[in-house]
Write a structure and sequence with these properties.
458 residues, mainly alpha, two-stranded antiparallel ribbon, two-stranded antiparallel sheet, 23 helices, DUF1800
Length: 458
């Protein structure tokens, strides 16, 4: 494989790759490299934080003790921010790149949020467990998650008064897409099948039998005493389900502009057994995945941008809330989706404010750079308040690990560093600018490369 192809793969299934590591992988074929990535991601390593104190607080809790309950909810929300930091750290250090990248993908597909950290941590690990497995088992498992049951109001879905919210999003967002195959009657019938799906205090799934509708239902042309799993089974019998998922994976891994013929190939593969790993192996070993038109054309998400920098130059934030603040400014606060549809991605990641921040962030984080507030705008006003002298306790305090950077780049030239960081076509103006960097220290070259518009693409 060429260096360009290796960097391309690692940009899409991970968050980039060092020039040294890319060079060491050159002797592998595509199949060998992809197999190596899957082998590294076979084991499931759950994301966990210390919740002992919170669990102890729940033991023997009097539900009438409102003050204690408010305190526990407040502590739980704090822990969700801790889970956010823990996940970002995992993304920045894990060798299970493909599993973690797919967990990130599915988190923006099976969108959910919960203030109960015990349930929300469990939901996040369910995404991780099934990220490369069987899609049918995945849909069933995520439908039974306490966080999802609460988020889409299935706790209120009872025989006497069905709530259609979960059934609607299951069809529209999770499996078939909007206005495909089904109609309003199908949504109502599906909702009846999911009545009584609930959970206990620990987050374990429970079917409340007296709240479940055991009557006959007609869904997508089939009639029977269907329960929730039956509905999921019927949904997956529709080839549109495989097509809908393949389109999303194509946009995520290949190109925002869908090539119908390639998606059709993917759909035929996926529809056979709904095996996510088989689908991804097909994509990552296909010639068209490495077509120049698919390289360096996707805008990095804020998380991809931040983690990509961290993997080149490891950095430590003195205060976790600074990292939270940065995520909010960039437009992607992990674990806090904007709505049930999640982040739109693509060009939506960029606006005048976020673009300016992205271009300046490498020097801010890696070289204690200052932001010149030439024009007032949403970002400038916000950052000025954040960085005000009267608010010094909230100033960004970041320690970049340049020793690790130099250790990983002892035999790497500026040209090789550029090849590992920039994959999009370079315009004439940028080429001229890069020529001036030739005699600079590798550290300065790294910061300048990351500050280029081309670094925003992968």
């Amino acid at each position: 494989m060429t260096i360009s192809e290796i960097v391309h793969v690692y940009n899409r299934v991970g968050f980039g790759i060092s020039a040294k590591e890319a060079k060491s992988l050159q002797g592998l074929s595509r199949t060998q490299l992809v197999s190596q990535l899957f082998n590294a991601s076979q084991k499931v390593e759950p994301l966990t934080i210390n919740l002992t104190e919170l669990r102890n607080g729940l033991k023997g809790l009097n539900l009438k003790d409102r003050e204690k309950i408010r305190s526990l909810i407040k502590d739980s929300v704090k822990k969700i921010h801790e889970l956010n930091s823990a996940w970002l750290y995992k993304l920045g250090t894990t060798e299970q790149l493909l599993r973690e990248k797919m967990t990130l993908f599915w988190a923006n597909h099976f969108v959910c949020h919960d203030k109960n950290i015990l349930h929300f941590e469990q939901y996040n690990n369910t995404l991780r467990t099934h990220a490369l497995g069987n899609f049918k088992e995945f849909v069933i498992a995520i439908s039974k998650e306490a966080s999802m049951i609460k988020y889409l109001n299935n706790k209120q879905n009872k025989k006497q008064k069905p709530n259609e919210n979960f059934a609607r999003e299951l069809l529209e967002l999770f499996t078939l897409g909007r206005d495909n195959v089904y109609d309003e009657k199908d949504i109502k019938e599906a909702a009846r099948a999911f009545t009584g799906w609930n959970h206990d205090l620990r987050g374990n799934f429970r079917l409340r039998r007296f709240q479940h509708d055991y009557g006959e239902k007609t869904f997508l042309g089939k009639t029977g005493d269907f329960g929730g799993e039956d509905i999921i089974d019927i949904i997956l019998q529709q080839k549109q389900c495989a097509r809908f998922i393949c389109e999303k994976i194509y946009r995520y891994f290949v190109n925002d502009e869908v090539d119908a013929s390639r998606v059709s190939e993917m759909t035929d593969i996926f529809y056979k057994d709904y095996n996510i790993e088989n689908l991804l192996r097909f994509v990552l070993t296909s010639d068209w995945f490495y077509d120049p038109k698919n390289i360096g054309i996707k805008i990095k998400s804020p998380v991809e941008f931040l983690i990509g920098m961290h993997r080149v130059v490891p950095m430590k934030f003195e205060k976790e809330r600074e990292l939270v603040y940065l995520q909010k400014l960039l437009g992607q606060h992990l674990l806090f989706p904007p709505n049930v549809a999640g982040w739109k991605g693509g060009r939506n990641w960029i606006n005048p404010n976020t673009m300016m921040l992205r271009l300046r962030l490498p020097s801010i984080l890696l070289a204690n750079g200052e932001i010149a507030l030439d024009e007032k705008g949403e970002f400038e006003d916000d950052f000025q308040r954040f960085n005000d002298k009267r608010n010094r306790q909230r100033r960004l305090k970041v320690t970049p690990d340049w020793n690790t950077f130099y250790t990983n780049h002892t035999t790497i030239t500026a040209a090789q560093l550029q090849q590992s960081l920039l994959t999009s076509p370079i315009n004439t103006g940028t080429e001229t600018y890069l020529e001036k960097l030739a005699d600079q220290d590798l550290k300065e070259t790294c910061i300048q490369l990351m500050s280029l518009p081309e670094y925003q693409l992968c």
